[in-house]
């Protein structure tokens, strides 16, 4: 039985296989050479398996803006491994053409969800925080204390795809005016439940609102777009890009990014000019199998997309 602190890595073997199994990747006895990037370390499931597949000349650079994730990385005493306390949109700081593969797992880790003090879950009483990096930026509670109803509704609608965004936003502001700002997860969850009268079977009424506020407060979609763009410069020719997303907003961005760079681009303003040559080759999409979903219900929404960097 899993404890509440255990994190099960989604698509563990599939992701590492997709990242490493390309014909021209340099190898020596014992594993693969080259520098690989785990852009979202989390609790290190992918990183540990990656390290087991690398040679003594291989290197793994990880990124994570969660201080608890960085602290967890200290338990990997491997000289081939290093971690940066940065968001994965900072992978552009790496040398151009230096990475043989980049992995982005966009899911939040089980310890983040299941730790009440982080404020990610409506299942536990805790401060309404939701920041990935607790050392900087506004918490959700701080933002909601001053945000206008129109802006709150926009966030819930755009990032949560919630059809009751307007009524929820008005209820949040009305509550603030009458009794002061919302400060805990359970207060927000109850307010949403009182406002949303219908919901999909088996889904908590607050699910979409919590998702929206988490995405917004951490600028998750903007960070993803920046990281994908940087990956084109950091990947070496032949290098693999592997991205695991967990909801439609993320997956749409990844799908469109790969599609855009997997075809020649023509400038309509200069129809006779040579096209910009495509930079990626799409290699497919993978979803968890039935056995993984049974063993880890949080994997059921995961989609992994794989692409390969083409020569310039």
Give your account of this protein's structure.
The chain is α/β, with parallel strands linked by helices. It has two domains: 12-110 and 220-309, Vaccinia Virus protein VP39 (Rossmann fold, 3-Layer(aba) Sandwich); 134-217, Putative methyltransferase TM0872, insert domain (DNA polymerase, domain 1, Orthogonal Bundle), CATH 1.10.150.170. The chain has twelve helices and nine strands. A seven-stranded mixed beta sheet has the order 5-4-3-6-7-9-8, with helices on both faces. It has a two-stranded antiparallel sheet with strand order 1-2. Helix 1 crosses helix 2 (45-53) and helix 6 packs across helix 7. It is globular and about 65 Å long.
Tell me about the biggest sheet? 7 strands, mixed
Share in helix:
25-40%
Please report the total strand number as a whole number: 9
Helix segment count? 12
Structural class: alpha/beta
Average per-residue pLDDT, rounded, comes to 91
Described by the principal axes of the CA atoms, the overall outline is globular
> Termini separation (Å)?
49 Å
The CATH architecture assignment of the largest domain turns out to be: 3-Layer(aba) Sandwich
Spatial extent as radius of gyration? 21 Å
Question: What is the count of distinct domains?
Answer: 2
Which CATH C-level class of the largest domain is it? Alpha Beta
Oligomer: single chain
Q: In CATH terms, what is the fold-level topology of the largest domain?
A: Rossmann fold
Strand percentage, roughly?
15-25%
The CATH homologous superfamily of the largest domain is named Vaccinia Virus protein VP39
For the biggest β-sheet, the strand order reads 5-4-3-6-7-9-8
């Amino acid at each position: 039985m899993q404890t509440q602190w255990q994190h099960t890595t989604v698509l563990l073997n599939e992701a590492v296989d997709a990242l490493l199994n390309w014909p021209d990747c340099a190898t020596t006895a014992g594993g693969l050479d080259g520098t690989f990037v785990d852009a979202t370390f989390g609790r290190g499931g992918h990183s540990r398996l990656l390290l087991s597949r690398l040679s003594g000349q291989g290197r793994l650079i990880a990124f994570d803006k969660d201080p608890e994730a960085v602290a967890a990385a200290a338990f990997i005493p491997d000289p081939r491994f290093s971690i940066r306390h940065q968001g994965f949109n900072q992978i552009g700081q790496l040398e151009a053409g230096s990475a043989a593969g980049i992995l982005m797992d966009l899911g939040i880790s089980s310890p983040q969800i299941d730790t009440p003090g982080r404020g990610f879950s409506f299942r536990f009483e805790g401060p309404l925080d939701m920041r990935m990096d607790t050392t900087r930026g506004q918490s959700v509670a701080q933002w909601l204390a001053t945000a206008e109803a129109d802006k709150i509704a926009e966030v819930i609608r755009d990032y949560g795809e919630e059809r009751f965004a307007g009524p929820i936003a008005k209820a949040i502001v009305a509550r603030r005016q009458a009794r002061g700002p919302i400060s805990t997860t359970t207060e927000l969850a109850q307010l949403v439940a009182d406002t949303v009268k219908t919901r999909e079977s088996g889904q908590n009424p607050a699910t979409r609102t919590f998702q929206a506020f988490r995405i917004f407060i951490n600028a998750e979609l903007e960070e993803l777009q920046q990281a994908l763009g940087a990956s084109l410069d950091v990947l070496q020719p032949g290098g693999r890009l592997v991205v695991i997303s967990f909801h439609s907003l993320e997956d749409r961005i990844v799908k469109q990014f790969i599609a855009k760079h997997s075809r020649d681009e023509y400038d309509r303003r200069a129809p006779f000019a040579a096209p910009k040559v495509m930079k990626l080759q799409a290699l497919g999409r993978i979803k968890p199998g039935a056995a993984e979903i049974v063993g880890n219900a949080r994997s059921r929404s995961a989609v992994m997309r794989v692409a390969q960097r083409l020569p310039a």
